[in-house]
Amino acid sequence: MQQRAIVHPSIPKEAFNRIDAESQFTYIFETYYKRIYNYVGYRVNCHSTAEDLTSQVFEKVLNKIDTYSPGKSPFEVWLFALARNVVNDYFRRQKRHKFFSLEGLKELVSGSKGPESLFIQREFNDNLQKALDALSAKDEIWLPSNSEQSLKIRKFRSCLALARTMSASNVTAL
Question: CATH for 13-96?
Fold first, then answer.
């Protein structure tokens, strides 16, 4: 198995000679895991995905530690750049794979609604008809003019009356 030397700026040079690669990686992992996890979790907003992506970040750290150069940027900057790239790759993959629910796909393919949605729609229409039948004569407003403004007023008042009737008869809308 190949041994890798992981250089971290906060590890003193004399201690670095005594610490092996595994211990260095353990130090990096224990020091930065929570911060990387919080960063990834904030970006993806899903606990299990954040755990998976965080493990991918540390896998990349282990594989690419020899590409880190202390002269270019601090170690933390390099580490968070890896995390950002892993998250961006995740979102790119998600964009390519669009997910559909099986029920929605069945309805799309069949072109007809399923029995559940037909039943719910029929029940809603029945309740709506009951509410409309319960409207009194005073709720139906007849204005002499058919201007656009009077039609808007009539529609608004009818909706208010319908809402009152529906709430009085405990009918709920979809």
Answer: 1.10.1740.10
In terms of pLDDT, which residue wins out, 90 or 10?
90
Distance (Å, whole) CA 170 – CA 127: 10
Token pair for 31: 């020091």
Shortest CA distance to 33 belongs to which of 10, 1, 55, 66? 55
Nearest to 82 by CA among 114, 46, 55: 55
Is the entire prediction scored with pTM above 0.85? no
What are the C-alpha distances in Å from 154 to residues 83, 130, 173? 59, 20, 21
pLDDT higher than 60, residue 174: no
CB 79 within 8 A of CB 33: no
CA-wise closest residue to 25 among 63, 78, 74, 52: 63
Average pLDDT, the chain: 76
* Closest C-alpha among 138, 137, 134 to residue 165: 134
Task: Please check whether residue 70 is in contact with residue 7, taking contact to mean a CB–CB distance below 8 angstroms.
Answer: yes
Structure tokens at 62: 């282990």
At 66, the pLDDT band (50, 70, 90 cuts) reads confident
Domain boundaries, the chain: 13-96, 114-168
